[in-house]
Design goal:
One of its GO terms (molecular function) is NAD+ binding. Residues 10-188, 317-494 form the 3-hydroxyacyl-CoA dehydrogenase NAD binding domain. This is 3-hydroxyacyl-CoA dehydrogenase family protein. InterPro entries: 3-OHacyl-CoA_DH_NAD-bd (IPR006176), 3HC_DH_C (IPR006108), 6-PGluconate_DH-like_C_sf (IPR008927), 6PGD_dom2 (IPR013328), NAD(P)-bd_dom_sf (IPR036291). The chain has 596 residues and is an alpha/beta fold. The protein has four domains: 10-188, NAD(P)-binding Rossmann-like Domain (Rossmann fold, 3-Layer(aba) Sandwich), CATH 3.40.50; 194-280, N-(1-d-carboxylethyl)-l-norvaline Dehydrogenase, domain 2; 316-497, 3-Layer(aba) Sandwich (Rossmann fold), CATH 3.40.50.720; 500-586, N-(1-d-carboxylethyl)-l-norvaline Dehydrogenase, domain 2 (Orthogonal Bundle), CATH 1.10.1040. Helices cover 44% and strands 14% of the residues. The protein is built from 22 helices and 18 strands. The longest helix is centred in the N-terminal third of the chain and has 20 residues, at 41-60. It is elongated.
Length: 596
């Protein structure tokens, strides 16, 4: 830029929908003069009313004084004509995601604002470069992508095109920091970081639902309980707007040609039917009224407690394995009052696993979660055994041995011999075909997947995986047992990754590709997903915790089953695993960790 940049004190916000109104609130409360512009007088009035209501709540909560509230409201003026932007130091447009509409606004602004005024687009899907190239001064155009709701969400993506002046980027980055936000610098590609990762995952979830692989309630519950997400993907699509999601995905697909970004047909069908989510009152779910967040029953809502088939009685449980997962599952069953046989390849390994459970129970006592008496009773219910022959009388056998199909098949062949007729045989596999375990027995109808999540005592989710051969009464038995051990069961079919891993690992793989392509740094991607997506951990934090070798194995299974080129493991992940950098357990993965 030829002239020095002014301080950004007067800011015009063009488009006073939910996002524009939220940005205006953030700016006025931070002391900026805000010119709100919308062609609709009703939208402008609504924006003033919304700011009035939110600042009134802030006064009630003691976050603002009445004087401060009056000052905030005085700093917000609304207009219906773009000419009002003339005195602005910065203009932020948040109008609908359309090149035609945005380009028209920028062309008009070229003739209205000063030569040194920065023009920012709030797009999350369109090319900033294409918008800038049409302007008289492309060097002053950039992307400033806030997240909804803008007053609450900390992340702001600052998007540069190849034409953007560094001084403009520096000015808006400083502004974001002054607003109390966390700016992340990214390049110009559809979806940027947060939405680039988020929308691929949402699209996969929509496709999973469309394929009738799992119910909408089970998909959403699985991702909330299995990954700690604040909302399930289908509920989130309804919140974002299904039409908006489709627009973002179409832009991403046009740029990437990655089939994972090709919008699932159901998104087009719902959009064209006007079923765009909460704003229309119906999307994947049905809502009380347009704009309401309250879900109401519809034809797809499952009936509570409806069990068409009676389950088998389960009094005693066998757990096969001696690792963390096996001991965690044994602890869960013993706490729920079941008699548990914990069997491993040797008596010594089984005793060590029981000892680990004892330490876990002691920690629960120390934290006041259970009494010492209850802990002792729980531990007494667990009988360690050095042979699977000890499973002769159990009603349910759950294996948690190595994630190796041959090992599991051999174990199921053994269980087939030692377990009594009518016993339910369950595998905790997270990625292998359950039916392959079932076919290793003479009673495949008794075999089912029961995928617990680590750590089993803390994690509420169990994926209940039926094969084409699983008996209805076996399925009913496992769902009943899940209720008794206070876990939330979700039903899914026998295919790689089930619900959680099939949605989680492509997202993690795409994050690795972003780093591999030098699009964004590990730290910026982790920050973007925590601050912009509400994820409890960023993708690289999570990969290092899970283990890069485990992650690679799951990604290979998904790629082999679904044959989608977009699911091929990122070469960077393969290189790190080959180098022995497996995450926290080896002291180095995507990051380095202090040796303990």
């Amino acid at each position: 830029m030829d002239t020095p940049l002014p301080s950004l004190n007067t800011i015009a916000v063009v488009g006073l929908g939910t996002m524009g109104t939220g940005i205006a609130e953030v700016l006025t409360r931070a002391g900026r003069e805000v010119i709100g512009i919308d062609i609709s007088e009703a939208a402008a009035t609504h924006a003033v009313d919304a700011l009035s209501a939110s600042t009134a709540r802030a006064v009630q909560r003691g976050r603002l004084t009445e004087q401060e509230r009056g000052d905030v409201l005085a700093r917000f003026r609304t207009f219906t004509d773009l000419q009002a932007a003339a005195p602005a130091d910065l203009v932020i447009e948040v109008v609908p995601e359309s090149y035609e509409i945005k380009q028209q606004i920028f062309r008009e602004l070229d003739g209205i604002v000063r030569p040194d005024t920065i023009l920012a687009t709030g797009t999350n899907a369109l090319s900033v470069t294409r918008l800038a190239a049409d302007c008289a001064r492309p060097e002053r155009v950039l992307g400033l992508h806030f997240f909804n709701p803008a007053p609450a969400m900390k992340l702001v993506e600052v998007v540069s095109s190849v034409l953007t002046a560094p001084a403009a980027v520096a000015a808006v980055t400083d502004l974001a920091l002054e607003l109390g936000k966390e700016p992340v610098a990214v390049g110009d590609r559809p979806g940027f970081v947060a939405d680039g990762l988020l929308f691929g995952y949402l699209n996969q979830a929509a496709a999973m639902y469309e394929a009738k692989y799992a119910s909408r309630e089970d998909i959403d519950a699985a991702m909330k309980l299995g990954c700690g997400l604040p909302m399930g993907p289908l509920a989130l699509l309804d919140l974002i707007g299904i039409d908006t999601a489709r627009t973002v995905l179409e832009a991403m697909y046009a740029a990437s040609h990655d089939r994972l970004h090709a919008p699932a047909p159901i998104l087009r069908q719902l959009s064209e039917a006007g079923l765009t989510g909460r704003k229309s009152g119906r999307g994947f779910y049905t809502y009380e009224a347009p704009g309401s967040g309250t879900v109401v029953r519809d034809a797809l809502t499952p009936l509570e407690g409806r069990q068409l088939v009676a389950g088998r009685p389960v009094r005693s449980v066998g757990v096969a394995g001696s690792g963390t997962m096996a001991s965690g599952i044994a602890e869960v069953f013993a706490k729920a009052g079941y008699e548990v046989v914990l069997a491993a390849r040797s008596q010594e390994k089984a005793e060590a696993a029981k000892s680990r459970i004892g330490k876990s129970l002691s920690r629960s006592v120390d934290k006041g979660r259970m009494t010492a008496e209850a802990a002792a009773e729980t531990l007494d219910r667990i009988v360690p055994a050095g042979s699977y022959d000890a499973f002769a009388e159990v009603d349910l056998a759950v294996e948690a041995v190595a994630e190796d199909l041959e090992i599991k098949r051999q174990l199921f062949a053994t269980l087939d011999k030692v377990c009594k007729p009518g016993a339910v045989l369950a595998t905790t596999t997270s990625s292998l075909p359950v039916v392959a375990c079932a076919r290793a027995t003479s009673r495949p109808q008794d075999v089912i997947g029961m995928h617990f999540f680590n750590p089993a005592p803390a994690m509420k989710l169990v994926e209940v995986v039926r094969t084409v051969l699983t008996g209805d009464d076996v399925h009913a038995t496992v769902r009943e047992v899940c209720g008794k051990i206070r876990k939330h069961p979700v039903d899914c079919g026998d295919r790689a990754g089930f619900i959680v891993n099939a949605l989680l690992f492509p997202y993690l793989n795409n994050a690795i590709k972003m780093v591999q392509e030098h699009y964004a740094s590990l730290d910026d991607i982790d920050a973007a997903m925590k601050l912009g997506g509400g994820y409890p951990m960023g993708p690289f934090e999570l990969l290092d915790v899970v283990g890069l070798d485990v992650s690679l194995a799951i990604e290979r299974v998904l790629h082999r089953e679904f044959r989608d080129p977009g699911l091929a493991p990122a070469p960077l992940l393969e290189h790190l695993v080959a180098a022995g950098c497996l995450g926290r357990k080896t002291g180095r993965g995507f990051r380095e960790y202090a040796r303990r």
